[in-house]
Amino acid sequence: MAIMDGCEAKHKTPVLEERVCPMCGETVELFTRRGRVLEDTVCDCGYIFKAEEQLSAPQAKKKEA
Ligand SMILES: [Zn+2]
Fold first, then answer.
1. What's the CA-to-centroid distance between 63 and ligand 1, angstroms?
2. Does the residue 31 lie in any domain?
3. What is the 49 CA–ligand 1 centroid distance (Å)?
4. DSSP character at residue 39
5. Spatial contact of 54 and 41, defined as CB atoms under 8 Å apart
6. Is residue 6 part of a domain?
7. Domains: count for the chain
């Protein structure tokens, strides 16, 4: 339940968000900022929600598929 406390602060403050694990269907709480997962979060089943924070560093390489 997000507290509507001004929209500007929301852009910088990590938000505790619930995501459904695609492996086991459990609801996992993880921290996001602007809809992106801030840090790797492990579900009880072992599934890892990978951090999705935007890469701003120029040396960051794109993912190799
Ligand atoms: Zn799971």
1. 24
2. yes
3. 9
4. S
5. no
6. no
7. 1
Q: Are 48 and 35 in contact (CB under 8 A)?
A: no
Asked if residue 54 belongs to a domain, the reply is no
- What is the extent of the structural domain holding 20? 11-49
Q: For the whole model, what pTM was predicted? A: 0.62
In a domain, 29, yes or no: yes
Ligand 1 midpoint to CA 47 (Å): 5
**pLDDT tens for residues 27-57?**
999 999 888 999 999 999 999 999 986 666 6
- Residue 7's φ and ψ, nearest 5 degrees, are -85, -15
Measure 33 CA to ligand 1 centroid, in angstroms. Answer: 21
Q: How far is the CA of 14 from the centre of ligand 1 (A)?
A: 22
The pLDDT assigned to 1 comes to: 56
